[in-house]
Structure formats: structure tokens, C-alpha cells
Design brief:
The complex is a heterodimer.
Chain A (H helix, E strand, L loop, with lengths): L1 H7 L4 H27 L19
Chain B lengths: L1 H11 L8 H59 L13 E4 L7 E6 L3 H4 L4 E3 L14 E6 L20 E5 L3 E14 L21 E9 L6 E14 L12
Parallel strand pairs in B: 2-3, 4-7
Antiparallel strand pairs in B: 1-2, 1-5, 3-4, 5-6, 6-8, 7-8
The chains are: A mainly alpha, B alpha+beta.
Chain lengths: 58, 247
């Protein structure tokens, strides 16, 4: 998968490395900004209240 | 190339006619490609889970602390005119718990996730409505995060009997003393929020405070509860001199 992406990036090694870095940063940004905030309430790690509803309300 | 092909085919027990070495290599190439793709996906999943831990335990704190500081400053600005009546608009006051060593925690109404994720403590409106500190009798019940999102009650386990819990409103310091705790209880145990929390050993109505959060750290399996009782109140003076407990 990563080999395939690497082969399909344009330019020489330096340019490819730079593009790869940008892609990685973009993915991390998307994860922190959208994916993790969405996933977090679905996971049972951060319910702090007593509510008698199994933490549905958190 | 052809020799190696024969050798590997012997190992896997599927002899390929010597006349078709190219077909065998392509097939193996596909298998190897699939295995390597699977491996890369596993590595990617591991990295994403690792990043999620970083997000939960660090990044949410950064965001929540920034948000809480801003909200706290707004409340302080509004209070700058001097002591006045109770104000519940953006936060009714600040909780100071010296034993938790985390400075001041803004307290706002409500304990739903959206509010608590902003790095504040919330007082319960549901399932048992919290009393307010100024009420003659009742239980002022609060919840905040143990980890992530400011982790305002992270050190709740450091509280011992007799430790001070000070709540600061616009015009009054409420000084509570811890008298009981429940290191582990069910998340369904809403009785701990009752106006007279019987599990803490109290039988008569009084002015109590209840702190709840999750336990053990990094999970939400159980709830940790600490109870305090009002010891005295102090009027806020012009310089907002804190009570001796915060000295």
C-alpha cells in the first residue's frame, strides 16, 4: 500500500519525501480534528457521572 | 530463478510444472502482496490507536484548558465590579481543592459531555438535581473528567478526610471539609447524589458537597465519590482575599 503510494508520487526522492510528510500531517490533522472527536463518545473511556443510564448521557 | 521456484514449491507442497515458472511467480507475487498489504494495514491500525491515546490524554487537555481559561477569565471580568448576587450565566463559580493541586476549576450548570469536555466541572441537573451552595439545605453535586478534557478531577484520590474543598462565588467563599469517600461504586448508584447521601453516613439534612468522577484512571468502569460538609462561609472582600485553607 505504502509502496504503491510511493511509486505513484511524482518527482525525485526529495520531492516524494516532502509530499509524503504533507500527506501524513494531513491524515493526523483529519484524525485529531474529525475522526477522534467523533469516535470518543462511542468508546467507554470517559463517562464520569452517575446517571443510572449506563453512561449514555456521560 | 527457475531453481529457486522449484525449491519453494517443494516446501509448500504444490509442485509447479517446470514449463510454467512465470505463472507460479505471479501467483506467489499476489499472495506476498496480499500479506504485505495486510501487514501494512495492521501497522496503520496500531499507529492510529497510538495517536488516539495521544489525543485522549494530551490533546483534549490542551483544548479544554485553553477553553476553560477563557471562560474563567470572562467570569472574572464580570465579577470585577465587586461582590454581588449569585450569577449562573456562564459558570457559577470556582472550585478550589488544594489537595488536588490543580488550581481553580470553573463550575457550570449541567453534566452532559459537551459541557464537561470544555474543561469545567458541572453540577448535576439530572438524575438528581443538585442544590446550590447558597441553599439552606441540600447536596451540591459535581462531576468532572478524570482524564482528558482538562482532567479536572484527576487527583480526586489524593483527597483525605478533613481536606478542604473551597467553592468561590461572586460574593461568598464556601469552605467544605471532606468527611467520607467511596473509592468505587457503580455508575448506576445515583443515591450518592441525594440531598442526604446516606452512604456517606449522614442521616440529617445538611449542606453537603459531592464530587464524582470515573475510576480507575483511564477507564469508566466505576465511579469515585467524595463527600464534604460545609464548615463555614466567608464574605468575599474587596481584594478577594482567599480563606486560610487556600493560603
Amino acid at each position: 500500500m505504502y509502496g504503491w503510494i510511493w511509486r505513484h508520487l511524482p518527482g525525485n526522492v526529495g520531492v516524494r519525501a516532502l509530499i509524503s510528510l504533507v500527506l501524513v500531517l494531513a491524515v493526523v490533522y483529519a484524525l485529531f480534528q474529525y475522526v477522534f472527536p467523533w469516535a470518543e463518545p462511542l468508546l467507554p473511556f470517559n463517562d464520569v457521572t452517575v446517571d443510572g443510564e449506563g453512561g449514555a448521557r456521560q | 530463478m527457475a531453481a529457486r521456484t522449484t525449491e519453494q514449491d517443494e516446501q509448500t507442497g504444490t509442485p509447479v510444472p517446470a514449463s510454467a515458472p512465470a505463472g507460479g511467480a505471479r501467483k506467489r507475487g499476489r499472495v506476498a502482496g496480499t500479506v504485505s498489504l495486510f501487514g501494512e494495514l495492521l501497522i496503520t491500525a496500531g499507529l492510529i490507536l497510538g495517536l488516539f491515546v495521544v489525543y485522549s490524554l494530551w490533546w483534549t487537555n490542551v483544548l479544554a484548558d485553553r477553553d476553560a481559561d477563557q471562560q474563567g477569565n470572562e467570569v472574572r471580568d464580570r465579577w470585577a465590579g465587586g461582590p454581588g448576587a449569585l450569577d449562573t450565566k456562564d459558570g457559577i463559580g470556582f472550585l478550589h481543592v488544594p489537595a488536588m493541586k490543580n488550581g481553580e476549576v470553573l463550575v457550570r450548570k449541567g453534566t452532559n459531555a459537551k459541557d464537561l469536555n470544555r474543561g469545567v466541572a458541572g453540577y448535576y441537573t439530572d438524575p438528581v438535581k443538585s442544590a446550590l451552595p447558597a441553599d439552606k439545605k441540600g447536596n451540591f453535586s459535581l462531576a468532572a473528567h478524570r482524564d482528558g478534557h482538562g482532567a479536572k478531577f484527576h487527583n480526586i484520590d489524593k483527597l483525605k478526610d478533613g481536606d478542604a474543598i473551597v467553592f468561590e462565588t461572586k460574593d461568598t467563599w464556601y469552605v467544605y471539609k471532606v468527611y467520607a469517600k467511596l473509592p468505587e461504586t457503580s455508575k448506576y448508584n445515583v443515591d450518592v447524589l441525594k440531598p442526604v447521601p446516606k452512604e456517606s453516613g449522614k442521616k440529617k439534612p445538611g449542606r453537603y458537597i459531592t464530587l464524582t468522577t470515573c475510576t480507575p484512571v483511564y477507564t469508566s468502569k466505576h465511579r469515585y465519590v467524595v463527600w464534604g460538609e460545609l464548615e463555614r462561609t466567608e464574605k468575599v472582600d474587596r481584594h478577594r482575599t482567599p480563606p486560610a485553607e487556600l493560603g
